[in-house]
Amino acid sequence: MARVVILGQGYVGSIFAIGVERIKRGDLGYYGIPLANELPIKVEDIEIVGSYDVDKSKIGRPLYEVVKRYWEDEIPESLKNVVVRKGIHLGSLRNLPIEAEGLEDRMTLKEAVEKIVEEWKELKPDVIVNVCTTEAFKPFNSKEELIKAIENDNRERLTATQVYAYAASLYAKEVGGAAFVNAIPTLIANDNAFLELAKESNLVIFGDDGATGATPLTADVLAHLAQRNRYVKDIAQFNIGGNTDFLALTDKDRNKSKEYTKSSVVKDILGYDAPHYIKPTGFLEPLGDKKFIAMHIEYVSFNGAIDELVITGRINDSPALAGLLVDLVRLGKIAVERKEWGTVYEVNAFYMKNPGPAEKGNIPRIIAYEKMRQWAGLKPRWL
Amino acid sequence: MARVVILGQGYVGSIFAIGVERIKRGDLGYYGIPLANELPIKVEDIEIVGSYDVDKSKIGRPLYEVVKRYWEDEIPESLKNVVVRKGIHLGSLRNLPIEAEGLEDRMTLKEAVEKIVEEWKELKPDVIVNVCTTEAFKPFNSKEELIKAIENDNRERLTATQVYAYAASLYAKEVGGAAFVNAIPTLIANDNAFLELAKESNLVIFGDDGATGATPLTADVLAHLAQRNRYVKDIAQFNIGGNTDFLALTDKDRNKSKEYTKSSVVKDILGYDAPHYIKPTGFLEPLGDKKFIAMHIEYVSFNGAIDELVITGRINDSPALAGLLVDLVRLGKIAVERKEWGTVYEVNAFYMKNPGPAEKGNIPRIIAYEKMRQWAGLKPRWL
Amino acid sequence: MARVVILGQGYVGSIFAIGVERIKRGDLGYYGIPLANELPIKVEDIEIVGSYDVDKSKIGRPLYEVVKRYWEDEIPESLKNVVVRKGIHLGSLRNLPIEAEGLEDRMTLKEAVEKIVEEWKELKPDVIVNVCTTEAFKPFNSKEELIKAIENDNRERLTATQVYAYAASLYAKEVGGAAFVNAIPTLIANDNAFLELAKESNLVIFGDDGATGATPLTADVLAHLAQRNRYVKDIAQFNIGGNTDFLALTDKDRNKSKEYTKSSVVKDILGYDAPHYIKPTGFLEPLGDKKFIAMHIEYVSFNGAIDELVITGRINDSPALAGLLVDLVRLGKIAVERKEWGTVYEVNAFYMKNPGPAEKGNIPRIIAYEKMRQWAGLKPRWL
Amino acid sequence: MARVVILGQGYVGSIFAIGVERIKRGDLGYYGIPLANELPIKVEDIEIVGSYDVDKSKIGRPLYEVVKRYWEDEIPESLKNVVVRKGIHLGSLRNLPIEAEGLEDRMTLKEAVEKIVEEWKELKPDVIVNVCTTEAFKPFNSKEELIKAIENDNRERLTATQVYAYAASLYAKEVGGAAFVNAIPTLIANDNAFLELAKESNLVIFGDDGATGATPLTADVLAHLAQRNRYVKDIAQFNIGGNTDFLALTDKDRNKSKEYTKSSVVKDILGYDAPHYIKPTGFLEPLGDKKFIAMHIEYVSFNGAIDELVITGRINDSPALAGLLVDLVRLGKIAVERKEWGTVYEVNAFYMKNPGPAEKGNIPRIIAYEKMRQWAGLKPRWL
Q: Which residues form a coiled coil (chains A, B, C, D) (predicted)?
């Protein structure tokens, strides 16, 4: 059994919940889940025990009703048992056309953290999954500064994700072990403040920013060119979508944090910083959750020849990430069982755009995949 | 020093010769050569000592003049020293608008083979590189049958490549070791007849069909999907170009041999035979050596979501292969030094579309690259 | 009222029937119908009175059941009233995995024609729409030869479409006027034998080959370049789909007739025959009715600069044609009312890939659209 | 003879100068010039008599030297006779990595205008072509306000283009007639202040924003869809390039003026404002003058079917515009001869992204082309 709490009951969290329940009912296969059902913990062992959001229209409603907004077909009845709770806001929906409220509206951050930890002690999650909306944030790097910000109720300095991760460390300490999966760009597995805290608190952190969309594909295409010693002249990559995450990214500050994640891949894989333009480009509502991506790469081949590649695609954003979460939840539980407190680069390198810890970079996903399998106790596929 | 004989002085062979000489002069870097200058044998150590063709307008001419047809800029003077010799034809230019003649026009195949072996004993190549035009062929699999076909002067049964590879085995036996690099689709490293012969004759064979163009990229994109357990619904891949090789492929029989090579990658990588349409599509003269490729892939992601990728590109055909040859020649020499008679899967798996021996299949190129580096005595890049 | 008989109850004919009935019920707007509801004859005035096929599993079944194969949602009850009748086969489903039978299996062609004319005299269609599978055919050009072939029961010489068009002329003569819409590549509006017959028999012919898919888009893109006096160096266009029509086109002879239609557009629009590769490329079953197209165009701009365009797309094949038929049926009735016997270039030039009569060619569709509107008595949109 | 003064001796102005001179020498055909040599005024009749810029490194240098920066091959000697003069700056190169100076650094704007008019009276241009860098601007709409701004030396309110256009009207009044071609987004032909002035001053204005790149192609593709009554769900269009104009557009205010121009096309052609994201996206230096464009369109076809088109391309930016200028210069002279003071919609509708006057919108370019031909006294091509 792997007990899960979801932070941010939006598109990704909802598709995750629906997909897992459909698999349990036997309505759906394992496509889109990298490790399918190869792990000792089965997909069918996942149980969603709690859910948090700050959208007023979701708080207090059963999951069954909330996920309906994201799925037209029949919803599994089993989602009637979980009710969405009020979480930490801290402006994470600022500038979005959503009425929001947070626990911290009526208490200090410290009190809010305590309240959440109490709730978790009842819900008993093994793994806490963060799929909040992309935030504008500043990393801490110093554990002391982080704790001070909480103590001083410094709402300008903290984001919801940072507060949740802090709460997770308190919870893990109390119950003897837990995992926190950070699937959004806020640096947690790349922030030494949190890693230090995690090691002291029996917390496993996976992060940061789930590796879906164009970026992991770009990584593999660049690795393909690097291996042939082709010199990449330039890369342009565009992304446009119609879900809340793209709407949130029209906010300049949030966009910036995303850009950082996406760009680092170029230098990590090629070994030099080829001129590139890689950022989420725009919001176009009718595209919905199925984003449009376009990528252009120009490179030098033997004898000075210049080649060009163009990749375009329509990609369902939320299912891609939700499929990864099905693995991450189970791997999180495994890491807790193994007491690998802190973070696990082998897992992050495959599943995350910005794999922690900070001193490690991106490697080609195909290599990362094999290393992750080995970490998980599975046979490599081709190695 | 790595002494090379080129079989088929067309686009690829000419760009290879020009590029190597430009590098020697310091006019060109190592882009497009996968191993750059990391091997103990340097690019500058390559020496072209002989060249064969069956195009009447090339035979007897200095390389310097022949390569001019494929390169507008200045040609290195060093190419004045090699004269193109008459090779084996056996219809390899059949149906193409080229006047051709072969050694076998005036003697039996057996005599032609003997003549070639004599010439090679003078030229003293370490490595013989086959870049003839794509042929319609039938594999042998039995060494006896192959020898019988030569003995009986069975011109219908044999192709130029098969005769050349046979000659290479005789030559290797006499001189104590040599390598034969088969960069075209005719099965040599995948034909047990030739592998058996090679092992007995101190011959190293690399093959078959140099891994350039859309196929290795397809392999890596499919591996990318396979690792995420995405179910590939269908793949369509088109290729159109304007060089002699595309013209040759308008011939139905030649096209078929190409199709075989390109399609096997799907099952090898995915583990199931996703419906696919992968074949060289057409000839369009003004495209020249820079082919246009287009690929469409449709796959199932988590929760049944269906995504689509489209990849298009303009890719210089000949430089891509010529760059690989710069490595293969040096790796061939290394294999001879190590006496690894027969074939070397670690090399083929990265450099060849249809890596021999026959019982082995395709693996993701990114994995193959690391294994090949290890075989070559280099540190893996990411593993 | 416009009474319609459908020849070939496949994908296109079925989507046409479903769409028209859904519009009558108010379930669907006019998207995809070029003239929407601007004509005096309304979409709601269309009545399907008969249907013919040679697929054994369709003959004798109500339309309501047959169209189910092509549409997952609810089917309008109104389609229960029409039963699919046995038509002319003449090998039109040859080599396809369909069990077929034709009227001519048990009688001469002449008798079959008579039987059909009798049936039509009962059904009283104003317009007969031909959407059979693409055929391998030879045009007649001489009316006498056509009549002789029917009289002599020359089954090798004739295709189903040719026999149907002949029957239409007999029927039109008897009832005083009718229209025949040929939406497939077989030359009818481009065959003088049929035009001569039509003029004598009070028949209006529209044809040939409904202008859907990549070809009309290519025409407009080429016109765009021609107007800027850009010199087109080369054009490659690929098409791959999974419906019966693509399966039929894997047959080499059928493919050839399609290729003719598609290629003529280049010279017609540009004024010179730019090197091109334009043909239906392949069959890939999972693509279904939604084909994948890819097009590459290279052209010379001012001062010798070379530009490139790539167009790719996923396009639903059958609805595109079905939408045109909604207009063609109504325009056919209008032409009959105006007694414009023979053919009407103004209509063909917009709606057909190969607009008859033969001596006329393609013009940019945007121009053709305005001329067609004027012919139909509507105000031009931009002119 | 058509005497031309160029304002802004950058990429476009330089390719224009080189191309025209190469044509005079017989080195180049008429590709990329929409009307080729059909007009009574021949391409060979164009004479460049003056050039203005504010880049310190260009002022005072012969055209021959300046154009070298944009062209690697041999430069026609005839360009040695024109020297680049100092023009109006007003911050038009602000934030760009270029050292700039303007006439107004040492005198009032009014004096600068007088100086320029005096110089033009010597140079005697028939046509003044404005190809300055894209500016952030505010239209005037009132002639009085415009004149007041000049009189009051209001440097914040005016841009270089506005001052040049004002100078052109004074010059035209004095010499009895002249033309001003505004090829950049600043509204001139769409600003009633300038049109009123032009009518009083014997000035012809063509504008605004030369119709090159993705926008006119988008217009024709949208017209293609509109004519088939397909409902456009959404359009995304990206543009990235490496020339100074793209660098200038990284400036938010300049970008905004561009966006306005590009977006209006959607509503003008479709008749409704389909959701769209159309803007210049980014700067990527190695792309140089050959920009990369990507466009995604999703639309509804018959029976509710949803289709998708993706268009990508590499397009040389400056030659495309330079080719249009070759026509515009000659059409400007023709308009002067016909005394069509003010502006000419028939010309603007084909050649401009934002055709003046303001109350007129975009029409499909293919239609606009035919109307422009008719205005120019040429036979329509297809109408």
A: none
